[in-house]
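Hi support team,

I've been running sequence recovery on a batch of backbones for a student project. Most finish fine, but this one hangs at about 90% for roughly twenty minutes before it completes. I'm not sure whether the input is malformed or the queue is just slow. I've pasted the structure tokens below so you can try to reproduce it. Let me know if you need the job ID as well.

Thanks,
M.K.
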């Protein structure tokens, strides 16, 4: 369960940041703005960078742990952290152009929060079984 915990804190922080940023864009759009203010975008960007740094730190080089390669769960966490790092501009585009939604699928957006909360609770209580498939093609490997 230690590996799951090392991923959970930064993953929850990123989810929280993106959901708060999305709520801010909704409020700004409701006021007729075209983007968040430069100050808001700067705060979001700085928080995003810190979370990505935490995510990469939570996935150290396996050689530092005396192993040749990462476990499957570690590799997935590391790859996700690197994707957040490498695609920051695309991920945060919705803050600069309020015509761009956080996601491009309304049906998925309607269900996402409930499903993410369900998955977080299941991970907290160790209820996800081996081979549990997550959205986006990821599968829970049940590392304990």
């Amino acid at each position: 369960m230690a590996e799951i915990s090392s991923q959970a804190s930064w993953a929850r922080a990123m989810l929280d940041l993106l959901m708060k940023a999305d709520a801010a864009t909704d409020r700004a759009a409701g006021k007729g703005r075209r983007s968040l203010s430069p100050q808001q975008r700067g705060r979001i960007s700085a928080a995003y960078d810190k979370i990505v740094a935490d995510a990469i730190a939570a996935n150290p080089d396996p050689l530092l742990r005396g192993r040749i390669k990462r476990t499957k769960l570690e590799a997935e966490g590391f790859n996700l952290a690197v994707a957040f790092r490498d695609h920051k501009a695309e991920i945060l585009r919705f803050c600069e152009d309020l015509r761009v939604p956080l996601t491009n699928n309304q049906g998925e957006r309607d269900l996402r929060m409930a499903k993410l909360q369900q998955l977080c609770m299941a991970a907290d209580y160790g209820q996800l079984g081996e081979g549990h498939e997550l959205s986006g093609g990821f599968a829970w490997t049940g590392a304990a």
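--
Follow-up from support: It reproduced on our side and the slowdown came from queue contention, not your input. Confidence is low (pLDDT under 50) at residues 138-144. No action needed from you.
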